Every structure is written in structure tokens, then in C-alpha cells.
Amino acid sequence: MATVSAATSAATTTTTASSTATADATENSASAITSDFTTFLQMLTVQMQNQDPLNPMDSTDFAVQLATFSGVEQTVQTNQLLETLIGKVSGSGISELASWVGMDARTDQPVYFYGDPITVATDAASDADSAKLSVYNAGGTKIYSATVDVTEDLVQWDGTNNAGTTVAAGSYTFKLESYSGDDLLSTNTAEAYGRIVEARVADGGTELVMASGATVNSSAVTALRSPS
Questions:
Q1: For residue 155, how many other CB atoms are within 10 A of its CB?
Q2: Cβ burial, residue 223 (10 Å; 0-12/13-18/19+)
């Protein structure tokens, strides 16, 4: 059975707390406001065309409606300006994340195994006295498990299964079980370092595409380092 050894990589790990701005304004809401604006304009025009010339609209009422008209117009313009600003922020996020492509990011997403050991974070429960790391393939089958030292923050999985055979290249997920004696305290997805292959705009924000094919928001990356 292959063993899991403590990670000794000398690569510098940079913890990041950066988060990308997200926007609530959508194209549908902008269209709705624009539609309301057009409807209001049509109604006001019809009202003026059909008013009684012997009893025209009171100037005060007309002023109130014009003020309302102005408010609707400003709302539409403000919404359009916000959408422009959101687009600029998203573009800026892509520029900032461009340097992340090719780096190894620590996330709780599946990691692609190329043949090199994968570094896994083993954050056991604080009151645990033992822990077990399990590795699952893309089909959800457990292909490896081993006891890990709860005092170690990082371990390396060398890419072998319980039979000692190197597994095929592909996506793998890690789970950590924390124990106190024989009692199972918790089972959590263990974070691991995976390669970033793309940064892109999605749903008004920015997201990272991992080598495994998984996508993750940049704010979900807990650490970043150069490939070891």
C-alpha cells in the first residue's frame, strides 16, 4: 500500500483573500425599466392629444407628470451606466487573474492528476486524534485511503491506489475523515492544489477553469503558488 508523505515542496504559498465584484443588475431588469419608460411616454402623449381644449390639463398636474417622466428617464440612464461599469469591472478582473493561469490554486474542487504527486490539505477537526484521507476517481469510486498525521497541514498523494499501482491520468477528489478514538467526528472535502488553465467572465463575474474541468470563483481560492 502506498503511503502518504508530508509535503516538502519549497514553493512559496501566497494566501489570497481577493474576491471579485458581482452584480445584481441583469439585462432583463434593464429591458423592463426601458419598457416602463416607453409606456409612460406613450400614455402621456395620448393624454395630451386627447385633452379637452376647453378644459386643458392643469399646469400643476402637467408639471408633476413631467417630473415623473424625468425620474423614469434618469432611472433608465442610471441602469445603463451601471451595466457599463459592471462590464468594466469584469474586464479588470480578467486582467488581474491572467497572471494566475498556469499557477496551482488550492480549492475544494476536483484536481487533475498528471502523474506528479498532488498536494492535499489535511485540516482535521480540532479535537481529532486521528484522520483518514480517501481519494475518489471521477466516477465516485474510492481508489485509495490511508491514515494521515493530524499534526500535518499538507500531505502528498503520489497517484497510486491501494494496490500500489499508479492510477490513470484524470480528475480526483479528496475527502478527509476526522476521528476521536473510534468515533467519526466529521467527513469533509479536502482542499488540494490544482492547475489553473483559464480565467473567464461568467454571470457578470470572473471564474477560473481548472485542469480537471471544474470551475471555481476566484474568491474560493484559499492559496496560490507556482507549480512545483
A1: 25
A2: middle
Residue-wise DSSP of 66-127? HHHHHHHHHHHHHHHHHHHHHHHHHHHHHHHHGGGTTSEEEESS-EEE-SS-EEEE----TT
Buried b (16+ CB within 10 A) or exposed e, 84-108: eebeebbeebeeebeebeebbbbbb
pLDDT tier at 76 (50, 70, 90 boundaries)?
Answer: low
What torsion do the CA atoms of 134, 136, 141, 146 make, to the nearest 10 degrees?
-20
Query: Which residues does 179 contact at the CB level (< 8 Å), separation at least 6?
Result: 128, 129, 130, 131, 132, 185
Rounded to a whole number of angstroms, the CA Rg of the chain reads 28
Predicted local distance difference test score (pLDDT) of residue 171: 96
* pLDDT of amino acid 25: 45
> CB of 171 within 8 A of CB of 114?
no
Residue range 177-209, pLDDT digits in tens: 999 999 999 999 999 999 999 998 877 678 899
What mean pLDDT comes out for the span 130-134?
A: 97
CB-CB neighbours of 113 under 10 Å: 23
DSSP secondary structure string for all residues of 188-225: EEPPEEEEEEEEEEETTEEEEEETTS-EEEGGG--EEE
**pTM, rounded to two decimals:** 0.59
Q: What is the mean pLDDT of residues 32-60?
A: 72
CB 117 within 8 A of CB 44: no
- Enumerate the β-bridge partners of residue 172: 111
